[in-house]
Amino acid sequence: MAKENHSLTTEFILIELTDNLVLKRLLFLVFFVIYLITMMGNLGLVALIFMEHRLHTPMYIFLSNLALMDSCCSCTITPKMLENLFSEDRMISLNECVAQFYFLCLAETADCFLLAAMAYDRYVAICSPLQYHTRMSKKLCIQMTIGTFIASNLHSMIHAGLLLRLTFCRSNQIDHFFCDILPLYRLSCTDPYINELMIYIFSMPIQIFTIATVLISYICILFTVFKMKSKEGRGKAFSTCASHFLSVLIFYICLLMYIRPFEKGDKDIPVGIFYTIVVPLLNPFIYSLRNKEVINVLKKIMRNHIHK
Question: Which one, of 244, 221, 249, 234, lies nearest residue 290 by Cα?
């Protein structure tokens, strides 16, 4: 009977955000609008960078891939959450759960690597401007991008694959609005020790490496900027890094806030919503509104359409 019970739970129930019908309708409207803006903003940025040859530089190649991963994150989480707002059962199968976690893990891991690559790019641009085209060649940029996706895929496959070794015979209620890895561990009747060990072996080094790359890059940038005698040069250097630094700050603050409650075994739905739904919305606006090159390209496209 024990073995039979272990195989019973193949579907899970995701948490209900609210049981108030009016609030459900309001949340549906808000999250649906956020989803549309996120997809249009990120995919629009990808299309803009792809079409404009002036933006075919390492920084914008990394940025287009970041926007692509933000779109992936939004597609993975938001449609299911919108469906569950008016679904009576809020069911999700084990295979759907593993797939949802895989794509979320892929997007977030790729974001870590891409933000680190962009920090290194800004470091080379400000600290070694004369060697920039040598040290940040398009070949290296493509290699870094391919490496990011290979590493992110392997990382996601390891953790998603290890979920399939678990058996679930306890409650099938996931204390979250999507399939996250730690709430699933708490439902497992198989010891998740190996799964948790793999998090420390693979996830922790990725976080340490990417955060260290960002920190070292910005420390070097700050030293270089403070040595500059020209106020104009300092202003230009700071404006070059402002958008990226703001994205890094938002991403890692949300990541740390999101991880912290789960370490204690609690759920933090508002932080989860901000981390998986709001952050992908912010990046295209941070990079578009604060970036003169992107704004100039947009103005050029709009003028061309008006003249036509």
Answer: 244
